[in-house]
Amino acid sequence: MTMRVFHWLSRAIQLVTLLSFSALIIVVVLQIISRFMPFGFMWTEEMSRFLFIFSIAFGAPLAMEKRDFVRVDVLVGFLPATFRKYYDAVIYLVLGAFSTFLIYYAYEFTMIGTNRTSATLDISMSYINASMIAAFVLLGIYSFLNVYLVITEPASEEGGAEE
């Protein structure tokens, strides 16, 4: 049941990421085309910035879920598989704790934007800034889920000092 919830959460995040990134591509292409026209769209620069923020805010948790963040594991690769397993769990635990810690500051940042609107789109900046709350909540959830998954799955025998 719980993993089914995470599956549907992941699917929803994938959809939001896909939509925001696709819209970003469309807006940037429109911005490029408008450079060769006698008129320009004033809102495209601001909209592309906001869509980029949303793409990152929802794409980063997907990378955390799939454990696809870039990592340098040259030295860790020489360690025994069991030690690597607990090392990964500690790393995900620290990332989850840090993400959870940042939720409060993301909320404070969002509240700053409550009375401000964007220059050309006239959108409340709190909507844009709230993407950071969503990002840190989702990063925390997937970090703590990875701690559980890393500890409960059998240790991988690839690499390590035993070879």
From TrEMBL:
Keyword NADP annotated: no
Location, primary (coarse class): membrane
What Pfam families is this protein classified in?
DctQ
What transmembrane ranges does the database entry give?
Answer: 12-33, 48-65, 86-107, 127-151
UniProt keyword Transport present:
yes
Q: Where in the cell is it found?
A: Cell inner membrane
The Gene Ontology CC terms held by the record are: plasma membrane
Name its GO BP terms in alphabetical order.
C4-dicarboxylate transport
Q: What keywords is this UniProt entry annotated with?
A: Cell inner membrane, Cell membrane, Membrane, Transmembrane, Transmembrane helix, Transport
State the annotated membrane topology for this chain.
Answer: Multi-pass membrane protein
Highest taxon listed in the record's lineage: Bacteria
Entry's InterPro entries? Answer: DctQ (IPR055348), TRAP_DctQ (IPR007387)
Similarity remark: Belongs to the TRAP transporter small permease family.
Protein name as it appears in the record: TRAP transporter small permease
The source organism is Salibacterium salarium
